[in-house]
Amino acid sequence: xxxxxxxxxxxxxxxxxxxxxxxxxxxxxxxxxxxxxxxxxxxxxxxxxxxxxxxxxxxxxxxxxxxxxxxxxxxxxxxxxxxxxxxxxxxxxxxxxxxxxxxxxxxxxxxxxxxxxxxxxxxxxxxxxxxxxxxxxxxxxxxxxxxxxxxxxxxxxxxxxxxxxxxxxxxxxxxxxxxxxxxxxxxxxxxxxxxxxxxxxxxxxxxxxxxxxxxxxxxxxxxxxxxxxxxxxxxxxxxxxxxxxxxxxxxxxxxxxxxxxxxxxxxxxxxxxxxxxxxxxxxxxxxxxxxxxxxxxxxxxxxxxxxxxxxxxxxxxxxxxxxxxxxxxxxxxxxxxxxxxxxxxxxxxxxxxxxxxxxxxxxxxxxxxxxxxxxxxxxxxxxxxxxxxxxxxxxxxxxxxxxxxxxxxxxxxxxxxxxxxxxxxxxxxxxxxxxxxxxxxxxxxxxxxxxxxxxxxxxxxxxxxxxxxxxxxxxxxxxxxxxxxxxxxxxxxxxxxxxxxxxxxxxxxxxxxxxxxxxxxxxxxxxxxxxxxxxxxxxxxxxxxxxxxxxxxxxxxxxxxxxxxxxxxxxxxxxxxxxxxxxxxxxxxxxxxxxxxxxxxxxxxxxxxxxxxxxxxxxxxxxxxxxxxxxxxxxxxxxxxxxxxxxxxxxx
Length: 652
Hints:
With 652 residues, the chain is of the alpha+beta class.
């Protein structure tokens, strides 16, 4: 979501003058003033502020019209009418949900947006979700993050053994609150969890995976997301709370667990209080400020006409050189990701090329190289490639003979960087007759999409203005499309769940490469292994699927519910467009007045969607999203490996 700019209040006044206000009438007690300026507050206080604004019918109609018309671009809508096995749980009638929300009774703006957030999340496609800045300003954090571990040959759920050190990284404002109310969360560290809210802990994780987690098409992957785990956030090691301990909304005051504490002989039932964390990113002093600064549309909410002078200055981060992005929003809130305690970070020295999203090492056996690829979204596109080259030069000099690639909690990033890493690891000779290192791709050829492409061609636009223009793409023989080529005419039609799905002709990505790709791989394919927790989505999922489908790379997944099948990847979107992006496409093509075009949003929010399909090499009629591919190996986490990357790599 684009954070409000300094002139958000001015923009908000313009919006509020145009539509009936959503602000509550002044009262003696202002619930937002009570929590203003505080990083952590009791959930009830946070929720009172969020619910201070009654439902506004004009805003409801505006939001649902935007959502309805953006879904016309969504590539997987028809699949959701009856999702194929083993993904049947991800079955949603999208249009029926929109129709339901148009007439549903809501008391507050929060209730409406919370409903929309939840059912779009339960598409289990992290690329296609509703993120309203106002409603998602607070999230709950439980001082007892849970993990699934094998101890003495038995897998069970535990309060994370490192939780006391982990929670201390949130600072005194967080830990001091529990001290002030006399709740000793530190004694819970390492306790075995016998029940959560009266349920078997794995059953509770199942429930969270079904109702709250979202992001990943496969249920088993979402269950693993419920637990705490290590990752790279930005360029630093961190640890997730997990979806049980870090739910998206402050709508629970506590969670009851039956625990067997370390060194105890009898179970104990403990009611553990949540504390809500403010992650709105902008200051407020009262409810009027809260609405103006977080809720009302601002200058960065809606798209722009990129033909207009200076419009590019307002481009969203995804418009980095017109390079395709495929990533999920893994948590929604920065506070769900906290630093990994230093005692659990790798002790072997990093090799060159480890200052960004990739951390590379030589293990103590002097044979095994490790690349921990935290994401495919570096601050600098070229640096990802040069960092890879630098790391491999060090691997070669050190005499490495095998490689582990860790993809734990990799939410994706630049599509071309996934293609690059696959090509770099494989060598150009391995690509054979298929000249492009990625996948065949298509986009939905809805009536408005066809109009956008035709208008872009008629206007003589190129890729610096639009994602739709043909120069962004290549034919399957890897030659670039000319600017006047309409790749949606003729389109292709096929039947999905009784609906006629119309899509473009197939094409490939155009990917800039700034380093030399070796003809022969540094490591033979049989000496490369991928490890992770299957929370690997978008570009990460495409990369791992490429390695699996084209080279049968060994893939080992850690964690999850015992006995429950789990894919090695999450949802594999081929490209995501944010609301700003698709709205800019419409405006730049001079089609904002078209009856099919979505209106500008009246509130500050982002409705992102999965814009392209990638097709499996193993079955070119099946999107890789719906291709069931299981890992070669499944291992449980142990007390030594769940939050210690180096220990996990040594085991692997």
